[in-house]
User: Fold this.
Amino acid sequence: LNSGTGTISRWNDSSSTGTTILGTGALGVCSDGIAALSCKANPADVFVNSSGKFYWYENGMIRALDSSGNVLTVAGQNTFYGDTLAAINARFGVIPSIAVKSNGNVVVFDRSNIRIRELDKSTGQMKLLAGNNQNATANTTSLANAQPISRDIWVTTDLINVLPSTDEVIYSRGNSIAKISSSTGKWVDIAGNGTTDYTTADG
Assistant:
């Protein structure tokens, strides 16, 4: 199990080599029927039965490969579900951070699904603010909800001392602090220059 790349490899003792049997090297979750080596996966654990068939666990599902070498869910449901649907029916993974906007909307960082989502109080529905289940530093040119975000982010909408009355979500974009612009839906850097460094004085 190579958790950082979302792949699973099989080790051959006789040749001392490993062969990738699942995954593309990019984290994600694929649908059933996708070929094993074309599946962006996010396995958390893997086990092999007495016949040598392997199973893995990811995002609330136990999955395996069918006779054609395609992904098959054998139990469970994806923990990510419910955008554009009633929030009461939504599913989440691990939630380390929740924030509330001034209008009562709840912003949720779903860490295991690498997404930022928002519960719209007026409609009772969930909507996706940022992320696509892939772990990577976001850019400032694409829509926030159409690209990856990093797992090591923090989310808050309490911007009263930073961005008064905007209610814009901010996070750590690599080595910068960024916000989701309410007008464009894109990330905008508000602090940092993308490099790791420090200064000895303010200003």
In short: The CA atoms of residues 5 and 25 lie 5 Å apart. Confidence is low (pLDDT under 50) at residues 156-162.
